[in-house]
Amino acid sequence: MQQIIVDRIDQVAEDVVSLVLRGASGPLAPWEPGAHIDVALPNWLTRQYSLCGDTADRETYRIAIRYDPLSRGGSEYIHRFLRRGRGLEVSLPRNHFALEPAPEYLFLAGGIGITPLLPMMRAALASAVPASLVYLGRSLATMPFTEELRSSFGDRVRIVPTKQQGRPDLGTLGPGLDSGALVYCCGPASMLAAAQDAFPAGRLRAERFHPVARAFAPNTEFEAALARSGRTVRVPADESLLEALAHAGRPVQAGCREGVCGSCELTVLDGEPEHRDDIGAPAGRMYACVSRARSARLVLDL
Ligand code: FES
């Protein structure tokens, strides 16, 4: 974890604040476009936010948070109670939405989904790779960073307030692109669905706010053997691995608890996990908040 001080809080759109977080004791860990951090809030909640500042700035991170009326306490705390000067802990940056090399990029942002795409756009153009950004939001007043985008990227950015202009047909954006172009999309589920209809899966990279609804086989009980401590933890059918570990006195870090952020990643030494996350677990890893086991026993590096 890294200690930071909240250096600035700015209202950057209706219901959206941006925070500038300054390292409390020197430079912060480096990051790449698409990365996010876990922010441990004083109300005991941990939330994930994409970094949307300048990757070259090692003194500060910038994040932006939309107030969610259905907030489980994260955005509400930040909007109502967090003040400048407050010290917090944040994780090292983690990146499940990295910018892969391509001859051209199309970035599709919906609302607060602009946050990971803003540094991607900056990085693409800094490398002289053609890139354009289509940014949708209900109205200009609800869309953060529009002025910054216009001044930095000019006519490479198309800002679409959908209440006035309607939603563009994403299918019309594909034909002019290089055949190797990659499309990065971050926004609400409806936008991701439209992007999936408009672009082949091999060209689309998407980051979700929430998991896709999917059906899984009924939960079964399994054992988690903790290789470092020699303990074995029973994971009943009505508990997640994350919960069972916490109940056994071996809690692991967690954020979203929905299989989208990666905070609860564990190393699997033996056994076959049943992956239920939306990240795409690398070989030998699993996400304890949602994933379970196909084998009767998993051996974990804990
Ligand atoms: S807590 Fe976010 S993936 Fe498990």
How many DSSP E strands?
A: 18
Count of runs of 4 or more consecutive helical residues = 6
Q: What is the averaged pLDDT score?
A: 94
Biggest sheet architecture: 6 strands, antiparallel
> What low-confidence regions span 5 or more consecutive residues with pLDDT below 50?
none
In what range is the share of β-strand residues? 25-35%
Secondary-structure content class = alpha/beta
In whole angstroms, how far apart are the ends? 18 Å
Which small molecules are bound? FE2/S2 (inorganic) cluster
Write down the domain tally.
3
Topology as H/E string? EEEEEHEEHEHEHEHEEEHEEEEE
CATH topology of the largest domain: Rossmann fold
